[in-house]
Amino acid sequence: MLPIQMVDVQRQYKMLKTDIDRRVLACMESGAFINGPDVKNFEASLSFYLDNTNVIGCANGTDALQIALMALNLQTGDEVIVPSFTFIASVEVIALLGLKPIVVDVDPRTFLMKIEDIEASLSPRTKAIIPVHLFGQCVNMKALMKLAHTRELFVIEDNAQSIGAKCTSLNDERLFAGTIGDIGCTSFYPSKNLGCYGDGGAIFARKESVAKTIRTIANHGMERRYYHDLIGVNSRLDSIQAAVLSVKLPYLDRWNQQRVKAANKYDAELGNLDGIMIPQRVPWSDHVFHQYTIRVQDGRRDALQSYLAENKIPSMVYYPVPMHEQKAFNNVVRKRVLLKNTDLVSKEVLSLPMHPDLEDDQIQYIGEHVGKFLKG
Ligand SMILES: *Cc1c(COP(=O)(O)O)cnc(C)c1O
Questions:
Q1: What does the DSSP 8-state code read for residue 281?
Q2: 9-104+112-250 CATH pick, 3.20.20.70, 1.10.10.10, 3.40.640.10, 2.30.260.10
Q3: pLDDT tens digits for 15-38?
Q4: Ligand 1 pocket test, candidate residues 106, 187, 192, 197, most atoms within 8 A of CB
Q5: pTM given for the model
């Protein structure tokens, strides 16, 4: 059996080395390092993949969220609803722009924000919702978009973990995650389902006018060189990263299917064990398993993690501290609903190794050790 890795970023490079090296070297020869043809080509390919949604590359997924919020023209103190159980970026950008993050709870079986909580958290100052499609599966976008339309709220999808998943929309169509709300944001951080070799991100917008504003903001608020119409930022996808992503994009669906296959094997190995809960899959969305995250009950999570580590099985806690407990957000984050599931799952979650090249014998080995620990 090969050594087990939490993520494997080398294997894809080995498989695609000839193509990636050629594209990266050609980019370096060309000298077009910023906004060159590689960026345009990748944006066009990703746009085509996403059924012709506008795509704007940017420097990383956090910037994508910040630029998306900037494009909505909100006022200081306006409220944005977001789950407390997420990666910091989803909430950080709200605070950074002087807006108020209103955090909500998650469903303890899916780790996704709940529509009832959003309804219970609305106020006259609520302007936007950021659903986070955590671990590779989408929030109930049909219900969320219905609420957003009724209340005239903007929806920015944090799609950093679920690129390539499809989800049921308001009209019962299956649409790509990130293309259902007003704006979608993704990250190409190396360990994401579509990762580059450094930092990278992208913003999706169905409406041409929104896409135009986003493009302007991401480039110093300028359309015509040195004429600045908006206060913007400098956030661009590097040409070299775009070259890498252009080679990798055609494999995204296959890699996502391999993740699902690994998850099915995990389900079979772990589904009947007492003391843990396997991740629940929802009917309205695909799951592209950015993470395979179990819950370990009876306060035994950290002990299981140590036991696995002793047996050369890596695992990670995504995420140990919810946003409403973060020191940085003292007095910034508000809540109008109880966050009891968030508090519970933060203490119980454990993400097991997950990447497209995980082998059956590795998953079996992991399953056997989880089983041994639970019985011991
Ligand atoms: C990775 C991630 C981000 C941020 O992406 P970066 O490219 O690292 O800035 C935002 N939200 C979620 C849920 C993420 O997993």
A1: P
A2: 3.40.640.10
A3: 999 999 999 999 999 999 998 999
A4: 187
A5: 0.97
